[in-house]
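Re: beginner question about structure tokens

> Can someone show what the tokenized structure looks like for a real chain? I only ever see the sequence side.

Sure, here's an example I had lying around. Input first:
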Amino acid sequence: MDFSFTPEQNLLRKKAREFAEKEIAPRVDEMEETGKLPIELLKRMTNLGFMGVLIPPEYGGTGAGHIARIIILEEIGRVNAAIASTLLICHLGQAPIIYYGSKEQKKKWLPSLASGEKLAALAVTEPTGGSDVLGIKTTAKKDGDNYVLNGEKWFVTNAQIADLCGILAKTGEKGLSFFIVEKDALGYGLGKEEAFVGLRGCTVSEVFLDNCKVPKENLIGKEGDGLRIALSAIGNVGRPGVAATGLGITRRCLEEGSKYANERMAYGKPIGQLQAVQWLLTDMYMDYQISKLSSYYAAWLRDQGVRCDAENSLAKFWGAGGAARCAHKLVQIFGGYGVMNEFVPQRLLRDAETLIPMGGTLQIMRLIMARAALKFK
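And the corresponding structure tokens:
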């Protein structure tokens, strides 16, 4: 067993950390105040190869793989979870094309997605909810050389900036099918941009499909393949991305908590010498190590081509849940300063809580792990 990173992965971590600290960190206060995404940061990430980390080299990406992706998202999430979330959703939107697209579809879309010329999103959740995928109402009906889509999708991250949006829709008796809809398609529209308590700067809005015409060539796979395609993308790309972003938050919590505990004086000594504070830091340390091991192990399995539904769910469960626990403990360590806007703990807490429902609730993660547990031998 080798838990070390390759020289290339260590170099990637250094590059991602330098980018996050030098270029993202100075924009965080602005993002918190305005809720707007500095779009130029996405172009910079593209130039560094972060946008095409899962896209094969023959289509313009780096093909660096899932471990490399976790490294990037952890380092960016450590500085700002909103930018990390934006990037992870770009990867999520690419995934159906990368793993299920035809050769023609890959040639058509992947080079522009790798270059950052185009950005992607994925839309599954509807007013009826996100976990009940089979209960979606959006329909797609064949009409000559087109499909006509009708319905609405909620909580679509990146919808405001995406050039391509993957849509899951019902296609009659053949179940659910998956389509790539381009932003200039007739009948494709956006609702208002949502304002969440956390992840300020990560754009989320509704998508409306009103007799939206989509060429039949934009169907990914065959009719009826949509559920498998969407759940594979969410499970293998969306959830690990959320886990890695949460891992970055957890790491930042531990760093900030340790630093503050060693500097803050009370009762004539640093508060880090108080057992009550040590126990908080110990809990944060455990959450970080568990999140780290589960995230990188799941990514390693994906890079080996091994199915890892339960492992991805564990990584997401601990990555997001652990981040929220650690941020709450960090607030306690900082005391009154922890809930002041000028200090980082309150932002980490808001971001962590907003991560929790992304990619499926923690209860859904438990359900997926329960299936694996019942087959455990």
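Each token stands for a local structural state, so reading them left to right follows the chain. The radius of gyration is 21 Å.
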